[in-house]
Amino acid sequence: MKQPIIIDSDPGIDDAAAISIALNHPNFDLRMITTVNGNVGIEKTTANALKLKRFFSSTVPVHRGSSQPLLSEIVDASAVHGESGMEGYDFPKINYNDLSSTHAVEAMRKELQSSEDPITLIPIGPLTNIALLLSTYPEVKDYIKEIVLMGGSAARGNVTPLAEFNIYCDPEAAHIVFNSGLPITMVGLDVARSSTLSHATVNELQSLNKTGDMLHQLFKHYKGDDFEKGINVYDAYTILYLLHPEKFDVKEADVQIETTGTLTKGATVTDFNTHFPNCSVVMSIETNDFKKLFIEALKYCI
């Protein structure tokens, strides 16, 4: 049976890789894509989701979500992803008639409560929409199978010494989500840094299929950390983990979010020695395994 999922995203070059697989892999039933302010502003992240929808001729609805964090000032990652958020590929012109009118939070509530099977939420941007969903409609928790999120780090950060970007963008939202009592898997910087995608592998994507060529061109404009060694396709690890959890090293932990520290805002304080874990933390995967799983998943795309 296909796994029902919702992707909440701020596309984003690595988001494009995750969404491409989720839209096309036969194991997934992608119910909707919801957008959030993050890598770039909400207008651009929504436009980028619509670009991917049009690229794949998809009927999956796209719902616009939160335009700013709960409390924090807006930050972005346009220096990493380019001014539009998905620089490097000439996508088909978008049609805003493809955008569903219902706000992301309300759309998720309706879909969750009407679904015959519990749905897995996959937030791969800041957690603003998910926090608003859980705070506004706590009754939806009964309809959520689990949350598999990209964010956080058990070690060092990438936007500050201790904070990963998605959590840093809206630490108050992350605090709500991590303390929601729901099953949570944190797919953070640790696993991506354990298996950086080499530039040689990125070049292989060009001849894989149309999607591989699209991602190849995007990745050439992706200026993430470790760029000299290769590309960290952070968001794709969430999808690959759901497909092949047995390939990943995972540890249980209590993860709490620093919301007020002057130097530590957005840090995911990860305690592996706790007797009361609230989260599964994905730590690593063998580089060759990641490469194989990533390319195999992309073969289902156009």
Based on CA atoms alone, the radius of gyration comes out at 17 Å
Within CATH, the superfamily carries the name Ribonucleoside hydrolase-like
> Element order, helices and strands?
EHEHEHEHEHEHHEHEHHEHEEEH
Distance between the ends:
22 Å
Write the layout of secondary structure elements.
Layout: E1 3-9, H1 13-24, E2 28-35, H2 42-55, E3 62-64, H3 78-81, E4 99-100, H4 104-114, E5 119-123, H5 128-136, E6 144-150, H6 165-169, H7 171-178, E7 184-187, H8 189-193, E8 197-198, H9 199-205, H10 210-219, E9 230-231, H11 236-243, E10 249-257, E11 268-271, E12 279-284, H12 287-298
Parallel strand pairs: 1-2, 1-5, 2-3, 3-4, 5-6, 6-7, 7-12
Antiparallel strand pairs: 8-9, 10-11, 10-12
Helix pairs in contact: 1-10, 1-11, 4-5, 5-7, 9-10
Organism: Staphylococcus saprophyticus subsp. saprophyticus (strain ATCC 15305 / DSM 20229 / NCIMB 8711 / NCTC 7292 / S-41)
Pfam family, one: IU_nuc_hydro
Keywords: Glycosidase, Hydrolase
Characterization of this structure:
The strands form two sheets. Strands 4-3-2-1-5-6-7-12-10-11 form a ten-stranded mixed sheet, sandwiched between helices. A two-stranded antiparallel ribbon has the order 8-9. The protein has twelve helices and twelve strands. The protein has a single domain (3-299), classed as Inosine-uridine Nucleoside N-ribohydrolase, Chain A. Helix 5 links the parallel strand 5 (119-123) and strand 6. By secondary structure, the chain is of the alpha/beta class. It has helices at 13-24, 42-55, 78-81, 104-114, 128-136, 165-169, 171-178, 189-193, 199-205, 210-219, 236-243, 287-298; strands spanning 3-9, 28-35, 62-64, 99-100, 119-123, 144-150, 184-187, 197-198, 230-231, 249-257, 268-271, 279-284. The mean pLDDT is 94. Helix 1 runs antiparallel to helix 10, helix 1 packs parallel to helix 11 (236-243) and helix 4 crosses helix 5. One of its GO terms (cellular component) is cytosol. Pfam families: IU_nuc_hydro. Residues 5-291 form the Inosine/uridine-preferring nucleoside hydrolase domain. This is Inosine-uridine preferring nucleoside hydrolase.
